[in-house]
Write a structure and sequence with these properties.
The chain has about 240 residues and is α/β, with parallel strands linked by helices. It has 9 helices and 9 strands. Pfam families: Acyltransferase.
Length: about 240
């Protein structure tokens, strides 16, 4: 119940007024059954606008820190992220990757829509960064299709470090589902998982119009003082998997 109240009553109307969001390709999301929505990630508001404009409920995997904060603020954060369908995962432990995979499998096996950001973190500069292979492993292990999603404009409304939302046009582009059944039984093969990931990132690049950078976004954030020597952007990954 809280999910729909947040979407349609508490926050949704404000987001609509500020972002005038439109969605293209919504018909590509199936009306029932499990699927993975793989989105680029420019701003925290991506996790607000995508559920706002899609008819089905989306479950995201979220860092556990959102659910463990102290005091009244921490309690509110825990309630809010639970209400909007976020599932906590611990990203710090030795088994963090497996825990995230297990959580994703549970969502998919329940027949739900799983939202994933393959880049692993927000883009530091609105470019599209190298995807991590956890999404591919989930898709290969469960056999579900992956639908690429491009969020456009959210980084202007909610720049990194900003505390105030700025009125900006937001567009959501939903791509065609990608079927990886040709790789059935190959989950765990790192070369196949990389090929699957790169294919999704290629489609994300085409949908979003972003420049592609063949390094992980987390590495760029860590090495921010070295930005002058950062790798140059490339328009496309080396190739689209066949």
């Amino acid at each position: 119940m809280w999910y729909w109240l947040v979407k349609y009553v508490f926050i949704g109307p404000l987001l609509i007024a500020l972002g005038r969001p439109t969605i293209e390709g919504a018909e590509n999301i199936p009306t029932h059954g499990p699927v993975i929505l793989a989105s680029n990630h420019k701003a925290v508001l991506d996790s607000f606008y995508l559920p706002l404009k899609t008819p089905r409920r989306i479950t995201f995997l979220a860092k556990s820190e959102y659910f463990t904060g102290p005091g009244l603020k921490g309690a509110f954060q825990k309630w809010f992220f639970t209400a909007v369908g976020q599932v906590p995962i611990d990203r710090t432990g030795a088994d963090a990757a497996q825990d995230a995979l297990d959580a994703g499998v549970r969502v998919i096996e329940a027949g739900k829509v799983l939202g994933i950001y393959p880049e692993g973190t927000r883009s530091p500069d609105a470019r599209l960064y190298k995807g991590k292979t956890g999404m591919a492993r989930l898709a290969l292990q469960t056999g579900v299709q992956v639908i690429p999603v491009a969020m456009i404009g959210t980084e202007k409304m909610n720049p990194i470090g900003s505390r105030v939302w700025r009125p900006t046009k937001v567009t959501i582009r939903i791509g065609k589902p990608i079927d990886f059944s040709r790789f059935e039984g190959m989950a765990g093969n790192r070369f196949v998982e990389r090929a699957v990931t790169d294919e999704v990132m290629y489609d994300l690049m085409l949908l979003s119009g972003q420049e592609y950078v063949d390094v992980y976004a987390a590495s760029m954030k860590k090495d921010a003082p070295l930005a002058d020597s950062a790798p140059a952007a490339r328009r496309i990954p080396d190739s689209k998997a066949s």
